[in-house]
Amino acid sequence: MINYSGENFSELIKEKVLVDFYANWCGPCKMLSPVLETISNDIKIIKVDIDKYNDLAREYGVMSIPCLVMFDSGKETKRNVGFLPETKLKEFIK
């Protein structure tokens, strides 16, 4: 997993990636983090702290967290808001 640190976001999403928009104070985000670890070998994951990068979250229409957004070739292909158990998360990334 990669913690986003302000680099060029459009470059990071050129390949198939899962972006986790989260906040450290968010309970469901904390629950989701270890579940994301279980699939981190299957797909590249970029974690974006919305408190640090609220402009980016706003640009992508993130209204609630955790918000998982799948990108492929720079385009959003899927979105899920809220916690997902491991089985559902694996279905989501297929």
Tell me what the structure shows.
- The chain is of the alpha/beta class.
- It contains 4 helices and 5 strands, in the order E-H-E-H-E-H-E-E-H.
- Strands 1-3-2-4-5 form a 5-stranded mixed β-sheet, with no helix packed on it.
- Strand 2 (17-22), helix 2 and strand 3 form a beta-alpha-beta unit.
Termini separation (Å)?
A: 18 Å
Give the DSSP E fraction (strand runs of 2 or more residues): 25-35%
DSSP summary, beta strand count: 5
Instruction: Work out the helix count.
Output: 4
Task: Supply Rg.
Answer: 12 Å
Q: Shape from CA axes?
A: globular
Topology as H/E string?
A: EHEHEHEEH
Strand arrangement within the widest β-sheet reads 1-3-2-4-5
Helix content: 25-40%
Summarize the structure.
By secondary structure, the chain is an alpha/beta fold. It has four helices and five strands; from the N terminus they run βαβαβαββα.
